[in-house]
Design goal:
Number of domains: 1
Number of strands: 9
Radius of gyration: 16 Å
CATH class: Alpha Beta
CATH topology: Rossmann fold
CATH architecture: 3-Layer(aba) Sandwich
Helix content: 10-25%
Strand order of the largest sheet: 4-3-2-5-6-7
Order of helices and strands: EHEHEEEHEEEEH
Strand content: 25-35%
Shape: globular
Length: 180
């Protein structure tokens, strides 16, 4: 049923799993003996983070934030709002933000500034998708699985009006769906 709204599959489930395995191996190496806090940005990061942590072979902690900059629709509002903050102190800790997509960069730019203020030992970003054409602030992820063109994508955690998150792949949503 959901497939009828998809213009094309951009990244298959199998490709995502392979990328998560490769990134997990890199993170295992980079964070060995550092016990980082992986911070998932809800709701979109859940599928990617769930796949990624299966492939990290060192101690990690997880926490989650709910941060919104879209407030419905297809474009960032430019106003980042923290709806749920972390449950723990990050001072002196290594923090790795885990995101589904980096588009404008505003959300992560604001969060990196906040966590620097909170005195995290290090702050890095891992993302499933990077859409550099959408950037309005200077920020680059430290770890990227896929760079994508400036198209409206859904699936594997990414949504349009809270729908399509459960697709097992990343697909381009047909324009007629979000321009109605």
């Amino acid at each position: 049923m959901l497939e009828q709204d998809i213009k094309k599959v951009l990244i298959s489930h199998d490709e995502i799993v392979v990328a998560a395995q490769q990134l997990g191996a890199q993170l295992t190496h980079d964070y060995q003996d550092k016990n980082p806090i992986l911070v998932g940005i809800l709701k979109g990061s859940i599928p990617f983070m769930a796949e990624l942590i299966k492939h990290i072979d060192t101690h990690i902690e997880m926490d989650f934030m709910i941060v919104s900059s879209y407030h419905g629709g297809t474009e960032s509002s430019g106003k980042v709002k923290i709806i749920k903050d972390l449950d723990q102190d990050v001072a002196g800790r290594h923090v790795l933000f885990v995101e589904d997509i980096i588009d404008t960069g505003r959300t992560l730019n604001d969060l990196c500034g906040l966590f620097a203020f909170r005195q995290a030992a290090s702050i890095k970003i891992a993302t499933l998708l990077d859409k550099p054409e959408g950037r309005v602030v200077e920020i680059e992820p430290d770890y990227t699985c896929f760079e994508i063109p400036n198209e409206f994508v859904v699936g594997y955690g990414l949504d349009y009006e809270e729908n399509y998150r459960n697709l097992p792949y990343v697909g381009v949503l047909k324009e007629e769906i979000y321009t109605r």
